[in-house]
Structures are given as structure tokens and as C-alpha cells.
Design goal:
It contains 1 helix and 7 strands, in the order E-E-E-E-H-E-E-E. The protein is mainly beta. It has one domain: Factor Xa Inhibitor (Irregular). Strands 2-1-5-6-7-4-3 form a 7-stranded antiparallel sheet, with helices on one face. Strand 5 and strand 6 form a beta hairpin. The chain is elongated, with a radius of gyration of 18 Å. It starts with 9 loop residues before the first strand and ends with a strand.
């Protein structure tokens, strides 16, 4: 198994249509995805002192964070509009090996920063709403 390039981990936003067409969010330098799962503990007297968990129970979520240089792309404009409105949109994550995941996400946080005589950069945090499915 060979290492995959981080530059091939892309974040794409849907256009609001059904089915959605996806546009890559340009200018991203870093992307990160976390798969989270809450556990349901079902430990009882006969567990022998060991914790037992209920398989398939609890809530699962995916968090995506990214940072990059602001280029003023249509995708960045759409993300800002969703952040301001608090609306949920379809997003796609794609990887170098061709694997993809799609789901609906809320822009949890959108930060802009810039230094004098430097580029404007931003960071975003997305939280899943509903299932995120591998394709």
C-alpha cells in the first residue's frame, strides 16, 4: 500500500440542485476529517468487570476542518452564504485512491484572517447532519 497525497484530499460543495453537482473548494492547503461515535454502555453484573458496548447504537458524526488561501471562488462564496444563513448543504470528500464520501453538512465555523501585505486566509469547520455515505 502506498502513501496518498494530502493534496488529493478534496472538499467539494453541492450546487443546491437535485441531484447536486459538486464544485471543488479552491485554495485549501490543509484538510482534516474526523469520524466520531458516541457509545452506549451496556455493562452489567455478569460482564466480569469489563465494559460492554452495544454495537450499532449511539450517534455517529463526521467533522471536517480545512484551511486555505481565499481566492474568491464560487464555492467559497457559497460556503460563506451557508455560514451566514445557518443552512445545511451537500458536500463531497474525495481522496486520491478514488474513494468518495457524500453527506449534508452545516458550516459550524468560518474564520478569515490576513496580515498586512499578505494573502487573506480562512479556516472552516463542517459538522455532518444525517448519514455520510461512502461511494
Amino acid at each position: 500500500m502506498t502513501a496518498q497525497k494530502g493534496s488529493a484530499f478534496l472538499l467539494k460543495i453541492g450546487d443546491g440542485a437535485t441531484p447536486p453537482a459538486y464544485e471543488t473548494v479552491a485554495g485549501l492547503r490543509t484538510t482534516q476529517m474526523s469520524i466520531n461515535g458516541d457509545t452506549v454502555v451496556v455493562t452489567h453484573k455478569q460482564s466480569g468487570g469489563w465494559r460492554e458496548l452495544l454495537s450499532g447504537a449511539g450517534t455517529r458524526s463526521i467533522s471536517v476542518s480545512a484551511a486555505g488561501i481565499f481566492l474568491g471562488s464560487n464555492a467559497e462564496t457559497a460556503i460563506r452564504a451557508h455560514a451566514l444563513a445557518g443552512t445545511i448543504e451537500n458536500y463531497e470528500l474525495s481522496f486520491e485512491d478514488g474513494a468518495r464520501m457524500q453527506g449534508r453538512f452545516l458550516v459550524q465555523r468560518l474564520d478569515y484572517a490576513g496580515d498586512f501585505n499578505g494573502e487573506r486566509n480562512y479556516t472552516i469547520q463542517l459538522e455532518s447532519s444525517g448519514p455520510v455515505t461512502p461511494l
